Structure formats: C-alpha cells, structure tokens
Amino acid sequence: MRALAPIQKVDFALSSICLGHRFNREVATCSRWVSHSGDGHLYLAVGVLLALLAGDAGVTFFFTALIAFALELPVYIILKRLFRRNRPSHIPSFITPSDRYSMPSGHTAAACLMATLLSHYFPSFAVVYWIWAGCIGLSRILLGVHFASDVIAGSLLGIGCAAMVLDWAVI
C-alpha cells in the first residue's frame, strides 16, 4: 500500500480542491443529475431504442453492449473487493453511495464502456458521448464519493471491456 501513497496524496488534494469551495452545494445539484444519468436506466433505453430504430447497426450495438456489460460487471465487482479502498471521508459527500468501496468508479466504467461502443457504431456524435462520460466521472468526484484515481480506473475498465468485446466481435 505504500506504493499508492503518492497517488492517495494527489487524490486527497484534488478532492479538497473540488469540494472546498463555497459553491459546492450548487455544483452538487447539477452533479446529482449528471450522475443519475449514469445509473444504468439510460443505457438500457438507448440500447433498446437503437435496436428498434437504427437497423442492423442498432441491433449489433445492443448485443455488443450486453456482452460488454456482462464482462465489465463481474470484473468491477472483483476489483472493488480486491482494492477495498474506502470512499472519501475527509470531504463533504452529497449522496449516499450504494456500497462501501470506491475503486474503481462503476458509474465511470459504465459511461466509458457506452461511449466507446457508441463511438464505434455511431461515430458522428462521438464527441458528445465522451463529454457525457467525462461529466459522469467528474460528477462522482464533485459529489464526494470517488477520488480522481477511482474515476481513472473506472475509465480504463470501461474502455478496456468495450475494446475487448469489439475485438472479439466479427461484426
């Protein structure tokens, strides 16, 4: 764990900066909405809509996303149990997280997985997908439930799982 000490110092400093200002309640209001968009319901709705309205690409996207999430979720659970990193406690928290541990950020992993797949199948709006995924990751920090390194780890997990499934796909 000593190897992680420099990362933890940076994480604590960044969290303090992000949440140590007088506008943090207002920022948290917006961050809650952004974070909620990454709870999972939107992913299912997007997948179903694309499967119904976007022809073969939409159907392929839907099934690729199902496989990618089937890979990402157990890896996410294993990593949470492996790292057992406690959530930030020295800073304000504006929501109650669903579990005790913070590494990696599941919201960020799912958002980056979706952004990767959407960018692959529907590249015209790739910038929008990635801005949205970045906002979800940032919202988790601004809500006081994740450190920056949790969000980075979640990003790598989501992108990695999506890339792996895209590599496997013969589509």
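the 2nd protein, sequnce then structure:
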Amino acid sequence: METELWANIRRMYEVDKISISEISRLLRIHRKTVRRALESDSNPPVNEPRGRRTKSRLEPFKTYIVERLNEYPNLTSSKILMEIQTTRL
C-alpha cells in the first residue's frame, strides 16, 4: 500500500471521524483495504505477492507440452490435452 493512501485513510478515520464504509466509498477501495491500513499503526502494510498456492495440475506434463510445441508449433491446446488424456489411460 502506498504511504500517501495509508496516511489519508488514517487521517480520515482518526481526525475526520469518517466510518470505514464511507472511506471505502470515497476512495473507491475495498473495506478490507481500509481495515488493513487502520490495523497498521507505524507503517503502511506491505502488499504480499499473490501467487499460486498449489502446484499446477499440468506441472507433470510441462516437458511433454514444450517438446510437442517445439516439434509442432501450430498444435492446439485441445489436441495436446487429448494426447495427454489418451496416454494417461
């Protein structure tokens, strides 16, 4: 979160006595973002990177897919899926 946004949220809440819902409407941000800013007393909260929490279902087939696309660049994803499904059975 940017320092300026964090400071604005805290000022609006603590000095201007504006509610969390009203702050979110005025700044066009989610209420959870306002709450995160208010929970952090000394510094703006750091945005945690969002990423995949689980391994991709295609991960075991990644090398196969890359090889097939290198060999046949115009091969469609549906064809590759059919190939994977038939070889797994």
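Helices lie at 3-14, 20-27, 31-39, 62-71, 77-88. Residues 3-39 form one domain.
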